[in-house]
From TrEMBL:
Membrane-crossing segments per the record: 6-25, 73-99, 119-141
Record-given protein name: Membrane protein
Predominant cellular place of this UniProt entry's protein: membrane
Subcellular location: Membrane
Keywords: Membrane, Transmembrane, Transmembrane helix
GO-annotated cellular components: membrane
Record Gene3D superfamilies: Membrane associated eicosanoid/glutathione metabolism-like domain
Keyword Zinc: no
InterPro entries in the record: MAPEG-like_dom_sf, Membr-assoc_MAPEG
Length: 142
């Protein structure tokens, strides 16, 4: 494949949408059970939902938010790598590692939400992102 690094980008975007669907599928019934009327809500914050809904329900929404934060850097750096024609081989492999770590991080956060394994997974995925960034810099500044 010409730019294999595009595949992990699409998979992580798909996974982010899966997490969004999971958050909605658990949050709406929990809101109904808590007596929250969406039609009457005005200007609420995430903290309001955290107070009103069970923690395990909120974990999915929190993870969805996380998937719209650091992964934006992943999308950008992978796009740079693809545009420089260096998106195959080791860069594609590192991108897949990043995506796998983020998916496992999501599953941990959305189910048991233990901080230590989440932190380790986040740290490892960040190291993969650093490696991709260095490779992108080498491709752009060579």
């Amino acid at each position: 494949m010409h730019n294999a690094i595009l595949q992990p980008i699409v998979v992580l975007i798909g996974w982010t949408l899966v997490m969004l669907a999971w958050a909605i599928a658990t949050r709406l019934p929990a809101m109904r059970a808590a007596g929250v009327d969406l039609g009457r809500l005005v200007g609420t914050t995430a903290a309001d939902a955290d107070r009103a809904l069970p923690k395990a329900v909120q974990w999915k929404a929190h993870n969805y938010n996380h998937l719209t934060e650091q992964p934006t850097l992943f999308y950008a750096v992978c796009t740079v790598i693809a545009l420089t024609g260096t998106g195959n081989g080791v860069n594609a492999w590192i991108a897949w590692v990043y995506v796998a770590l983020r998916i496992v991080h999501s599953l941990v956060q959305a189910t048991v939400n233990r901080v230590q394994p989440r932190f380790i997974l986040f740290l490892l995925s960040t190291l993969a992102l650093v490696a991709l960034t260095l490779h992108a810099a080498m491709a752009v500044f060579r």
